[in-house]
Amino acid sequence: MGRRERKKAQTRQALSDTALRLFLEHGYDSVTIAQIAEEADIAVATVFAYFPDGKESLIFDDGVERRDRLVAAVRDRPEGQPVLRALREFLATRGPFRVDPSPQHRRRTELVMDTPALRGYQGRLWTRSQDALAEAIADESGRDPADITVRALARYVLEIPDLAAGEPDPRHALNAVFDLLESGWPAP
């Protein structure tokens, strides 16, 4: 990474860190983009240049890393490991599903879960990965990425974080949904 790219990454991280700190201190709805820009000593226009999706995007990456890691969980899984097992293990390391998160991570997760705008934005980041995940699942299963069952599986998996995260025991809920996907609905 060249000097210019490093500087951009530092600016983006500084904005993100400032926004998270202000959101945690004052609440998401009480903080404006102008306040974040002032605190970071950056012009408001610069904030939007780095985060064109607006205020919700300030504490998230752009979704590319999320998508890439999700696809890597499928493509780079150990030989013989089922795709759904790899996806379960990947999601178990994220957000409210993590075991023993740091206090900072816990506070950030609580902020996201308790703020409808952030939770909705995070959900959109997950679903942006649907085509890439469907393609990876198709490649690994020898199916066509356009196959409705492949696309449905990708969508179902990407809905799990939002669905399970709001449960009293998110990790248990994550496992319950994956158990259902892996075994199918029991006949009555």
Automatic annotation (TrEMBL):
Keywords: DNA-binding, Transcription, Transcription regulation. Residues 9-69 form the HTH tetR-type domain. PANTHER family: HTH-TYPE TRANSCRIPTIONAL REGULATOR BETI (PTHR30055:SF234), HTH-TYPE TRANSCRIPTIONAL REGULATOR RUTR (PTHR30055). InterPro entries: Homeodomain-like_sf, HTH-type_TetR-like_transc_reg, HTH_TetR, MftR_C. This is Transcriptional regulator. One of its GO terms (molecular function) is transcription cis-regulatory region binding. Transmembrane segments: none annotated. Residues 32-51 bind DNA. It holds the Pfam family TetR_C_14. The keyword Transcription applies.
